[in-house]
């Protein structure tokens, strides 16, 4: 039996860093964002779909995330349409990853885990969290989006408090060492559970 862990958390909560910690401990990670980036590349399956509907979002044959962000900021409904085009391709890729797991534990790193109902494919969910002021600071310090972009993304994500309520485990990402210890503890708990299954 393979134990499927879902990892999620709102933007700026330290999800990618935490996923890397699981990976460093030998857990295969399926990264939804990386899959989408691949689909958006020139020749990627999503690039062709987006080109048909939003040619202005393209740059050198690939989907430009900046141009896409501008389009969505002007008309938030575009995001729903883009997601309806891309999510089936992402789901297909995820199903292929889960088909022949060679490890007893695998991790699905998905920003919109609850919002898309993908938590139903997981045996348990880990939510990463940090105080709201630190979250905001982290996002704006990256220099990739404005306060308005940040607020739009937040409005489309389940609030942090609701995510924490639905999680089996919550990892606070204020300290790297504490977060790493939490990952170790979670893996030990899952291994124990699998040993008694």
Protein model, in words:
This protein has 2 domains: 1-28 and 104-197, 3-Layer(aba) Sandwich (Rossmann fold); 33-100. 55% of the residues lie in helices and 14% in strands. The radius of gyration is 17 Å and the shape is globular. Helix 3 packs antiparallel against helix 5. The protein has a 5-stranded parallel sheet, sandwiched between helices. Strands 3-4 form a two-stranded antiparallel ribbon. With 197 residues, it is of the alpha/beta class. The longest helix has 23 residues, at 77-99. The mean pLDDT is 93. The protein is built from 9 helices and 7 strands; from the N terminus they run E-H-E-H-H-E-E-H-H-E-E-H-H-H-E-H. It has helices at 15-24, 32-40, 45-53, 65-74, 77-99, 132-141, 147-156, 160-166, 176-195; strands at 3-8, 29-31, 58-59, 62-63, 105-109, 124-129, 169-172.
Compact description:
With 197 residues, the chain is α/β, with parallel strands linked by helices. The protein has helices spanning 15-24, 32-40, 45-53, 65-74, 77-99, 132-141, 147-156, 160-166, 176-195, and strands at 3-8, 29-31, 58-59, 62-63, 105-109, 124-129, 169-172. Strand 3 (58-59) and strand 4 (62-63) form a beta hairpin.
């Amino acid at each position: 039996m393979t134990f499927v862990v879902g990892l999620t958390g709102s933007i700026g909560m330290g999800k990618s860093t935490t996923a890397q910690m699981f990976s460093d401990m030998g857990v295969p990670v399926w990264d939804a964002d990386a899959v989408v980036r691949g689909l958006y590349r020139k020749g990627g399956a999503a690039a062709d779909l987006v080109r048909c509907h939003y040619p202005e979002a393209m740059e050198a044959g690939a989907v430009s995330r900046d141009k896409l962000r501008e389009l969505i900021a002007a008309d938030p409904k575009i995001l729903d349409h883009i997601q309806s085009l891309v999510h089936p391709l992402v789901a297909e890729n995820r199903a292929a990853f889960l088909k022949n797991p060679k490890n007893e534990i695998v991790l699905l790193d998905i920003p919109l885990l609850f919002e898309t109902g993908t938590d139903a494919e997981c045996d348990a969910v880990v939510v990463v969290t940090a105080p709201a002021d630190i979250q905001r600071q982290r996002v704006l310090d990256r220099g990739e989006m404005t306060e308005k972009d940040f607020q739009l993304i937040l409005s489309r994500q389940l609030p942090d408090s609701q995510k924490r309520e639905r999680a089996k485990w919550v990892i606070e990402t204020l300290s790297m060492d504490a977060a790493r210890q939490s990952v170790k503890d979670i893996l030990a708990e899952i291994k124990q559970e699998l040993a008694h299954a």
